[in-house]
Amino acid sequence: ARVDEEMKIIDFVEKPENPPSTLVSTACYMLSQEGIRGILTYLDAGENPDAIGFFIKWLIKRERVFGFVFSGRWFDIGTLESLKEADLIYSKNK
């Protein structure tokens, strides 16, 4: 992903081989009612339903979409092993 100085998302690529930046999506989205309706428009147009990143790329061409750059520690918990690792680290810091 790439954002401008206002944190507006100006580029978004779902799982790129050569990422345009070090920013990643944590897959936590907040959509307006219009954005939610956009999902139906997107799907009705026959666009890729496989991952929400494809929808975000489509949406930034039509609406103002903003991101938040998180600077703290975070974990990709896409596997049981990585979830256990994150849990272990956070439980030590309680």
UniProtKB/TrEMBL annotation:
What is the name attached to this protein's record? Nucleotidyl transferase domain-containing protein
- Cross-referenced PANTHER family: GLUCOSE-1-PHOSPHATE THYMIDYLTRANSFERASE, THYMIDYLYLTRANSFERASE
Lineage per the UniProt record: unclassified sequences, metagenomes, ecological metagenomes
Task: Give the matching InterPro entries.
Answer: NTP_transferase_dom, Nucleotide-diphossugar_trans
Matching entries from Gene3D superfamilies are given as: Spore Coat Polysaccharide Biosynthesis Protein SpsA, Chain A
Q: Which residues form the Nucleotidyl transferase domain?
A: 2-90
